[in-house]
Amino acid sequence: xxxxxxxxxxxxxxxxxxxxxxxxxxxxxxxxxxxxxxxxxxxxxxxxxxxxxxxxxxxxxxxxxxxxxxxxxxxxxxxxxxxxxxxxxxxxxxxxxxxxxxxxxxxxxxxxxxxxxxxxxxxxxxxxxxxxxxxxxxxxxxxxxxxxxxxx
Length: 152
Fold this sequence. Notes:
The chain is mainly α. The chain has a single domain, classed as Four Helix Bundle (Hemerythrin (Met), subunit A), CATH 1.20.120. The chain is 76% helix and 0% strand. The protein is elongated.
């Protein structure tokens, strides 16, 4: 295991990508990178390779730290996402934490697929750019929305 703190590694990767791109793309990229690490580890386990607990913990911890960053972000009362969606992200993160613990207790290659799928699905959603009409509808004041709906 490296001498670096896994939280620092996750945050460092997050910051490195943030300087090069928008936040949605950055978040998608770090999720895809974590998914790839998880998939590589699962493939090695599936192939019968013995993986040390240290390496297993490092990769799972990296993914978990990313999700901890997302939970922290969802806790911000000024976050732009609606409260219901923020709650859903937080619930998903807690599922990731629980499933990670289950993998540590009983490490089997097929158990990684859930985490891989979650990361990839969330990344795919983040990479989709909201269409202009939907964005405009959500950002209009209620009076403007009612007026534009009655015109159409």
